[in-house]
Amino acid sequence: MLYFWREDKIADLRLTIFDCRFMKKILILLLVATFSFSSCEKDDICDANTSTTPRLVIEFHSASANSTSVVQNVTNLKVIGDGMANGIVFSTATDGSQYIFNGSKIYIPLRTDANSTTYSFILNYDNPNPSFVNEDKITFNYTHRDVFVSRACGYKTVFTLDPIPYTQTAVPATSAKWMTISVDKSNIDNENETHITVYF
User: Fold this and answer.
1) How is 27-70 classified by DSSP, letter by letter?
2) CA-based nearest residue to 110, from 80, 137, 79, 142
3) Residues 6 or more apart in contact with residue 180 via CB below 8 angstroms
4) Among 93, 104, 134, 149, which has the minimal tally of Cβ within 10 Å of its Cβ?
5) Which residues of the chain fall short of a pLDDT of 50?
6) For residue 15, what is the DSSP state?
7) End-to-end CA distance of the chain
8) What is the pLDDT of residue 37?
């Protein structure tokens, strides 16, 4: 009888050891699964369609008294910022024409490290007859602040034009200004609308 009792105890002991090993395997499997799922989270990729720091949107219109609402294309416009060698790039060309704009609407960046940005707007750039070339130098005055977009995209800078939003001089100073400027929207927080209209 004692012999059978011992066999039962040994069988119980074997079963207990098997249960412990089995439970250890399950516990390890559960821990691995838990850590795997806890490391899964949404990728931090900034969507290309997310609004970033907006540029100043300028649209050109006819200065004719009867057609101020008519959009008008500029011809061979070059926009050069203070300290820039060549000017703003408007196309993917590589022959020098990437700095020349022909159209009715331009997008120009404002400095995020200062409260003003100065550009020279040169109409009919490179015309062999200098009397057809017109240049106005404009300094845009504004305040700016950083706005949090998302963890993936970081911050963007938005701008508010000052009550006196710009100063304008003709180059040379003795010539007439070719641009008449109207501020349409002082808050520059996206590129979906025109901020400034230029009549010429």
Assistant:
1) HHHHHHHHHHHHT--------TTS--SPPEEEEEE---TT-TTS
2) 142
3) 63, 198, 199, 200
4) 93
5) 1-3
6) H
7) 116
8) 57
